[in-house]
Design brief:
Number of strands: 10
Number of helices: 11
Oligomer: single chain
CATH architecture of the largest domain: Alpha-Beta Complex
CATH topology of the largest domain: Aminoglycoside 3'-phosphotransferase, Chain: A, domain 2
CATH superfamily of the largest domain: Aminoglycoside phosphotransferase (APH), C-terminal lobe
Structural class: alpha+beta
Largest sheet: 5 strands, antiparallel
Shape: globular
């Protein structure tokens, strides 16, 4: 368990990171630690840059944490205002880092149609080269099983009993995916939303992004409440793709099972307060399976 001193030191940027930013950060200026990151260390500078230092231990069994992939996505998507503008990147003994323009606004809380349209626009873009593949169909079960192998046996046993029946679907269209479009990664300003935290992009079935956004567990963790049935219907209607809606309906039980396993794993690696939130999130996912 980290000591109070450890927690205080975590708020301070390493001197090597300050030096690496060079002329983008004036000597001695105050960097403010940001609370938004669930995994990495984040600071905001007086010049409105966000500096992210990647923490890769322990490795996350579902969401990648790839600095190079995030930097590449920011370069591709910033001109379309779908992501922040990348300003610098590098690698230090403490880990990889990037710096990008701060996106003004607040985390998404309402207007699911906005998110449906945003994801539809993202998924229509050309897919960058070398993105990893998102799990689909059979792979969803394999990844869930691999996560369950990492959780306590009593939890794993209970979750195995909730496994949904397999579903045979042909491969869906392959799209450019954010990979983690939870409310905390959707920054809203006026009628516009921007996606941040691009460290786990992928190519795959659009269902992946929609199912993660609509995950009751992730909505609970980041927004404080799952989407209502009406909000879910609005999201799907705004996305406006009957084929994707059909695939989503068939695959959602598998995503509920996956996210129940993930939230259970996450609870075991979180602070006491966060662990309680993630176990509540896991229970919400399980409720959709019973």
């Amino acid at each position: 368990m980290p000591t109070a001193t450890d927690q205080m030191l975590r708020l301070l940027p390493p001197p090597s990171l300050r030096a690496a930013l060079g002329c983008l950060s004036a000597p001695g200026e105050l960097w403010c630690a940001q609370e938004g990151g669930q995994t990495n260390r984040l600071w905001r500078t007086p010049s409105n840059l966000v500096v992210k230092l990647y923490i890769t231990d322990p490795p996350n069994p579902l969401f990648a944490n790839d600095a190079a992939a995030e930097a590449a996505c920011l370069q591709v998507l910033a001109p379309a205002a779908l992501a922040p503008r990348l300003r610098a990147q590098g690698h230090l003994p403490e880990g990889a880092w990037i710096a990008y323009d701060h996106v003004p606004g607040h985390p998404w809380r309402k207007d699911p149609a906005m998110v449906g349209r945003l994801l539809r626009g993202l998924h229509a873009l050309p897919v960058p080269e070398a993105l990893p593949k998102a799990p689909a169909n059979v792979a969803l079960r394999e990844i869930t099983e691999s996560i369950l192998a990492k959780v306590a046996s009593n939890h794993a046993r209970d979750l195995h009993a909730l496994a949904p029946p397999s579903v045979a679907l042909p491969m869906g269209r392959q799209a450019f995916l954010h990979g983690d479009p939870v409310p905390g990664n959707l920054i809203v300003s006026g009628q516009k939303a921007t996606l941040i935290d691009w460290q786990c992009p992928a190519v795959g079935d659009p269902v992946h992004d929609l199912a993660l956004f609509m995950s009751p567990g992730m909505q609970q963790v980041y927004r404080g409440a799952p989407l209502s049935e009406a909000e879910e219907a609005i999201t799907i209607a705004a996305y406006d793709c009957p084929e994707t809606a059909y695939r989503l309906a068939l695959l959602r039980p598998h995503y509920h099972w996956l996210m129940a396993a993930y939230c259970t794993w996450k609870a075991a690696h979180a602070s006491a307060e966060s662990a309680k939130a993630y176990m509540q999130a896991a229970a919400l996912e399980c409720a959709r399976l019973s």
